[in-house]
Amino acid sequence: MASTTTTIRSDKPVVLLTLVGVLALSLFLQHEFATRQALLFLVGLGLGITLLHAAFGFSGSWRNFIRKRQGAGVRAHILLLALTSLLFFPLLGKVFPNLHSAGALGPVSVSVFTGAFLFGIGMQLGGGCGSGTLYTVGGGHVRMLITLAFFIAGALIGTAHLQWWLELPNLGKVSLIETLGWAPALAGQIAVLAALYWLVRQLEYRRRGRLADLGSEVPRAGFVERLIFGPWPLWWGVVGLAALNLLTLLIAGHPWTITFAFALWGAKIWNALGGDVASWSFWSSGYQAQALQQSVLADTTSLMDFGVILGAVLAAALAGRFAPDAKWKRFDVLTAVAGGLLMGYGARLAFGCNIGGMLAGIVSGSLHGWLWLLAGFAGAVVGVRLRILLKLDPPVGKHNESA
């Protein structure tokens, strides 16, 4: 029987340079900061490898489900939420009292709803979510650098306006773990996620007559070869992201987040250009003021974001898929700018993106995470319609939508 695998031609110079850079930065972090910082950077590296090898994104998966009822990606997201909840709830419920960790709790507010809705639109126009923007940049997609640049700008603008948004109707932080106890809260959350999984399966089967397997499109190869060179089935991505998020909670003391770093980078750039964000209420006290005065390498979120990008570079180079393409159309630039601004601004209002707001919120038992999911998906529906109006995609039902 002929082999179904293909020869992988890794980009060895890029692999070597990336590994040298990772080693040098890890040693520097350990020497100048702490072992904890080096470990979190390496966890970020693992997240980048996992995201790229499993092609684990949110914007494309949501768009495919909205347009075509292709549900594999959305079902993988639900499984990730369920598995990570199983890992997080006992820890956040203080089953181990000596373990110091805190969930990502945000307010149930107009700010979160509006921000998540804007983010949902932006990630369809920009072509990536919070994690997706980072790993596609690392994979060599030059257009996403534009999205990232304006993601940073939008996040900075969001910090200037956040106080005003927080004065709108706000129920405060609602923790299901604190309200119900971790075990009843976990049981209820798993039940809701199971119902969502069933609904997605039903809608997918009704439209398509079959269910896509979470690994059926991955070429067969030996375990070690696939682990190193990819591609990975989606369920590998689920397990990898859940495990690495658990490591983040244990090492950093909080779940994986992404977009605070973008606001911080924007603030530092603005200060370097002569601005003064220290007078803004967001940056005037607490951790934000401290982060503004320190190196970005002292900030956990920044470190992990750098790790995600370098992990994606390494994974793409190992897979022979690191091929930067600087070609784009003028309209692509405009949608990247609009998408980046909406995502950055929305993420700040919503206390995080699809990772720091939705994933981290839901697996922390925070009600705002569920509000983020509802508003973000509604925004994605609007974003998909905008893509059609802007002729980025054909109308629904055209060009073999059932494929």
Describe the 3D structure.
- This protein is mainly alpha-helical and 403 residues long.
- The chain has one domain (12-389).
- Helix content is 67%, strand content 2%.
- It contains 17 helices and 2 strands.
- The chain has helices spanning 12-32, 35-53, 59-68, 72-92, 110-126, 130-138, 143-166, 176-180, 182-208, 223-229, 234-252, 260-272, 286-293, 300-318, 330-349, 354-363, 367-389; strands at residues 107-109, 170-173.
- A two-stranded antiparallel sheet has the order 1-2.
- Helix 1 runs antiparallel to helix 2 and helix 12 packs across helix 14.
List keywords for this structure.
about 400 residues, mainly alpha, globular, disordered N terminus, 17 helices
Low-pLDDT parts are 1-5
Q: Tell how many strands the DSSP assignment holds.
A: 2
Number of spatially distinct domains: 1
**DSSP summary: helix tally:** 17
Average pLDDT score: 91
Proportion of strand residues: under 5%
Strand ordering within the main sheet: 1-2
Distance between the termini: 29 Å
Helicity range: 55-70%
Give the helix/strand layout.
Blueprint: H1 12-32, H2 35-53, H3 59-68, H4 72-92, E1 107-109, H5 110-126, H6 130-138, H7 143-166, E2 170-173, H8 176-180, H9 182-208, H10 223-229, H11 234-252, H12 260-272, H13 286-293, H14 300-318, H15 330-349, H16 354-363, H17 367-389
Antiparallel strand pairs: 1-2
Short note summarizing the structure:
This protein is mainly α and 403 residues long. Helix content is 67%, strand content 2%. It has one domain.
